[in-house]
Each structure stands twice: as C-alpha cells, then as structure tokens.
From TrEMBL:
Domain Dihydroprymidine dehydrogenase: 26-136
Protein name, UniProt field: NAD(P)-dependent oxidoreductase
Top-level lineage group: Bacteria
InterPro entries listed in its UniProt record: DPD_II, FAD/NAD-bd_sf, FAD/NAD-binding_dom, Helical_ferredxn
Pfam families with a match to the protein in the record: Fer4_20, Pyr_redox_2
Species: Sphingomonas floccifaciens
Domain called FAD/NAD(P)-binding: residue spans: 151-458
Length: 485
C-alpha cells in the first residue's frame, strides 16, 4: 500500500478479524477470532489518522509507537513494524490479545472520537508479531557481556519475565523462582485459552530459557529458601509475585461444597488444557459440565469464569454483579462475547446467602440499586429493600478480585515493609523495598491491575536495578583497589 493511501478512515470502515460462530467457539478453548490476512491488516492500519499528538500512545502504559508501526504495516513493511513494536514491549502479541484496548489505546483513538470507529490497534499488533514468529524475525535473547553479578526474580508472571529479559540483556546472570510448575503466572494458569492460547506464552518462556535465564519452577520462597537466603545468593532481588489472595464473601453458607474460588477453578481448567492430571477437576468438583453455574463478580476474571463454564458444558451460566452494565470493571467486549455464548447477566444483584446446607443448591440474592458516587467515582451499590430473589446453583464461583498475600510472613522477612493494603512498599524513584537490594514491581506493588502495566513495571524496575548493580560493582571495585593499595 502506498503512503498516499493512509488516513482513509472516512471511506474505509472499521473491521476486526471475524469471530467464529458463538456456538462453534463455545465448544473449544481456541481463540475466538483468527488474525488478519496481510491485505486486511494493511487496510485497517491505513485508517490511522497519524495524529500529531497520538492519544493512543499516551494512554498505552508502555507508550508504544502505535501510529508509526501502523504506518509501516499499511505500507507493507511488516518486519520494520515488528521491530518498532518489539522495541517497547517484551510481549506485543500477548498485549494484542488480552489488553482491554477499548479502555486504553482504541478507546482514546482520535477517529473513534470523530465517530468513524477506532483503528483496530490490538488486532494489528497481534498480526504483526504472530507474523514475526512465523517468519523467523523474532531473534534469540542475546545476553550482554557478563558482569559477574546475579539477580534473583521471584515470580514468573509478566512483570518478572519482562524484568528478567531486560536484565539478561544487560549481562546479568538471572534466576527466576516460581511456585508453579510452569512459568507465566496468570498468563499460563489464570487466563483461558480462548483469550490467550498457551503456546503463545510458552514460546516466550522458551525463548528466555534459551537465552540463559535459569528457571526454578515449583520453588516456594519461605519453604525452599527464605528471602534472606536468596539475598545472600544474589546481588539483587526482584519480588514480582502478583496478588493471589481472593477477596472474601461474608455470607451464610459460603463454606458449602460447590462454592469455589475463581483462580482455583481457572487453574484447574488450564491444567487440563495442558493434559495434566487434576483430581479436583476429574472428580467433578471444579468441572462445570451439566451444572447450573453462578459466577459472582463483574471484572475480567469473572468473564473468564463464565466463558470457561460455557465451554465445559454447563447447563446454565449466570453472572451476578452488584452494579449495572455501565459501571462494571470488566471489558465490555468480554461481556458481549459472553452474552453471545449464552451467559446471562443479572445486573444489580449481590449474594445474600448460599442455600443448601453442606452442598450448595442455590444463591439467595439481594436486589441492588445505585446510590451516590464512591471514592472511585462510580455510583455505590446499596441494597434495594423491595427486591430479592433466588437462583439455582450447583457450582458457585467467587470472582471478586485479589489482594496481596502476607509476604513478610510467607517469606520469613518481617522487616519487609508493606502498605495498609498488604502490597509491598517501595521507594517511588528507585522501586526498592525497605530492604537494600530488594526491589518490587507489578501487582504486588500497585494491586491487581492489567498485564500491560506489569510489563511496564518490569521494564522500569530493570533499569533501576541496573543502576543499583552498576553502583554496587563500582563500590566493590573501589574497595578492592583500596585494599590492594
């Protein structure tokens, strides 16, 4: 496509890659849409208005050079587009799949404001990097000149993996410790395959392993080694564990059999996708097949749960959320996908009790209404005294979000500073915790957030750690020279 064919958003309609039929896609865990073919990608990238102030980049946590790689794509210069996309992100094809573009880049696209429909940025980003993998343009991770210093990274999620990649590129020996038997964190075990097929994650992990990053999987800090023992082993540490403590529901019957945590449910499903033996799935406890499923929550995790339950063959799937559709925290695109696949949303409802005694048989729910805005700016839900109802349920999945685990206790490091929310307290400039040489990044600092923010934090903290380690090496060298003199 010639350059003069750019800026054609007025007469060229927005077109996302076609989604598979809802009935077909609900029968498997494949991603629901295929990627563009090259002419379609070039055509859609050519809709970009090439803004002088690109709001899409401004609102991207990674500040990706979006208009530039859209222009290169429109001109058929895909390898250059990939290299530019890859220059700011360690996982562009993953962000292209799972970022809530409707709230970030695409939601702030200038031509979206003009009523012509946003450029399909995420779909083009996915196309560019998938093409790069197929064409062999994704180069191996080449470590920098060896510095004689080692770094330990606790947590193999997006923040930890991103930081590990940059630190290895700086020339450090990098060890990644993770309690799961596969790296990737929530990318591997939390997000279902219909949003992110697992080979996409594993090829990234394999690239890091081939680059000399050493992974210690099935390693729990506090059990296999204390934080102090890891500090003694490495010149610096990064804590990037994410947040995994599920938020509780306080209601009668919450401990009944059949009331389960969202992450436990999603992990079991993803493990089955890998072909693992999962006793709690195989005995039916974490399998929705033939069951009436109720998911409580309105975020992206809740959307993952309802859509997983559909694919497992649930008899019915309902989602209870205490606010209305306009005020839900999850992606509107995910909600639409779920509705297409047969999920019923029960807005303005909250669990009052879980019925059935030892084994759940239903959810007694309160009707809600929206009152005055709360601290977040959204109207706060309150019980509507004139409403209330019950819904049948054989499986209830709690998806109310996650908080930080008690890391000082888990890690045997009582001096590790935390905030009142339990997240790690870090210096805003250095990203270092209360312990010298121990840094933190990702959700364990900012609270439950987006994958793209974790990648950004991993990139930022690697630069701070690099500066710290260079200063440490200079100090050690000066001390050695003073002794020698």
């Amino acid at each position: 496509m010639a350059t003069e064919q750019l800026l054609k958003f007025v007469d060229r309609e927005q077109a996302y890659p076609a989604k598979r039929d809802a009935g077909d896609r609900a029968a498997d865990f494949r991603e629901i849409a295929e990627r563009y073919n090259p002419p379609a990608a070039e055509d859609q990238a050519g809709r970009c208005s090439q803004c002088g102030v690109p709001y899409c980049s401004v609102h991207c946590p990674l500040h990706n050079h979006i208009p530039d790689w859209l222009r290169l794509t429109a001109e058929g210069r895909l390898r250059e587009a990939y290299e530019l996309s890859n220059s700011t992100s360690t996982m562009p094809e993953i962000c292209g799949r799972i970022c809530p573009q409707d709230r970030l880049c695409e939601g702030n696209c200038v031509i979206e404001f003009s009523g012509h429909g946003a450029v399909t940025i995420g779909s083009v980003e996915k196309f560019i990097t998938d093409t790069a993998w197929e064409e062999g343009w994704v180069e191996p991770l080449v470590p920098g000149p060896a510095r004689g210093q080692s770094v330990g990274v606790i947590g193999a999620g997006p923040a930890g993996l991103s930081a590990a990649e940059y630190l290895r590129g700086f020339g450090y020996e990098v060890h990644v410790y993770d309690r799961h038997d596969r790296a990737g964190g929530l990318l591997t075990y939390g997000i279902p395959g219909f949003k992110l097929e697992k080979n996409v994650v594993m090829r990234r992990v394999d690239r890091l392993k081939a680059g000399g990053i050493m992974f210690h999987e099935g390693f729990s800090v506090g059990e296999h080694a204390t934080l102090d023992e890891l500090r003694a082993k490495h010149d610096a540490l990064l804590i990037a564990t994410g947040v995994y403590k599920p938020r509780a529901i306080r209601a009668p019957g919450v401990g009944a059999t059949g009331v389960v945590e969202a992450l436990e449910y999603l992990t079991a499903s993803n493990r089955k996708g890998f072909g693992d033996a999962v006793p709690a799935f195989d005995d039916g406890s974490l399998d929705a097949k033939g069951k009436h499923v109720v998911v409580i929550g309105g975020g992206d995790t809740a959307m993952d749960c309802v859509r997983t339950a559909v694919r497992q063959g649930a008899a019915s799937v309902k989602c209870l959320y205490r606010r209305d559709r306009a005020n839900m925290p999850g992606s509107q695109r995910e909600t639409k996908n779920a509705e297409e696949e047969g999920v019923e949303f029960v807005w303005l409802s909250a669990p009052e009790a879980f019925e059935g005694g030892d084994v759940v048989t239903g959810v007694k729910a309160s009707a809600m209404r929206l009152g005055a805005p709360d601290a977040s700016g959204r109207r706060a839900p309150e019980v509507d005294p004139e409403g209330g109802f019950s819904v049948k349920a054989d499986l209830v999945i709690k998806a109310l979000g996650f908080d930080a685990e008690d890391l000082p206790t888990l890690f045997g490091a009582g001096e590790l500073g935390v905030t009142r929310w339990g997240t790690l307290r870090v210096d805003a400039k250095s990203m270092m915790t209360s312990l010298d040489g121990v840094f933190a990044a990702g959700d364990i600092v900012r609270g439950a957030s987006l994958v793209v923010w974790a990648i950004r934090d991993g990139r930022d903290v690697s630069e701070r750690m690099h500066g710290y380690l260079k200063a440490k090496a200079r100090t050690a060298q000066a001390s050695a020279q003073k002794v020698a003199a």
